[in-house]
Amino acid sequence: MRRQARSRVLLTFICFVFGTMLGFSYQHAKEEAPRRQWSDSEWKKEYEYRSALIALQKENRSLKQQLVKKQDELAAWEKKLAEKQSNEAGLAKEAEQLRMHVGKARVKGKGVAVTLSDSSYIPSEASATDYIVHEQHVWKVVHELLISGAEAVAINGQRISHRSYIVCNGPVIEVDGTQHAAPFVISAIGDPDVLSSALGLPGGVVDELVEDHVDVKVEKQEAIVLDPVFAPKP
After folding, report:
1. How far is the C-alpha of 192 from the C-alpha of 195, rounded, in Å?
2. What pTM does this model have?
3. Are 105 and 96 in contact, with CB atoms under 8 Å apart?
4. C-alpha closest to that of 166 among 181, 158, 156, 176
5. Three-state SS for 16?
6. Residue 215, SS3?
7. Are 118 and 182 in contact (CB under 8 A)?
8. CA 118 – CA 166 distance, rounded (Å)
9. Strands (DSSP E) found in 69-177
10. For the segment 191-206, what is each residue's pLDDT rounded down to a tens digit?
């Protein structure tokens, strides 16, 4: 009994001492722990830094807004410039087409070549003038080519325009004052299939020329080059 009581007293004493030591250590550590206290100057610097950061963030947002606005303005300007360039390109193309149609520009493209030759056979009792090519034969071909979509036409390499004239002068014909002898090669730039089909329609130009004893040959060509129109001779 006494031994047990002594053991309890000893255990109680040990727990008391240990608890006292633990409490003392905690209090000492708490008192010894460094305490951070900012001075007025440090608080002032912190405030200045924060204010400067807020100002920079505000300026950055403003710059971003200005950048977006400038980008929109640039996009609008580029669009207007593209439209202007497109309009100018369209006008330039239209002017080039007009120059081509009036014969003021050198042109190259696909098309057909129609060769008109005097008849290779003339009966002895017939008149020779009935078996040669006349200006009306040339005009028939030129007219048919133009209404069928030909962009440019030339006779024996001489470009013609809306002001051109063709007249007979004995065994030759004159194109704007320049004489040409048979055979007459009429070159036209345009869709080869359309132009050749238009000439070869039943009862069309080719048939009419054959009936007039004119030898006709129509050839499709991949590359025809026609020089500009020269001023007609007075």
Report:
1. 5
2. 0.57
3. yes
4. 176
5. helix
6. strand
7. yes
8. 17
9. 107-117, 152-155, 158-159, 166-169, 172-175
10. 999 999 999 999 999 9
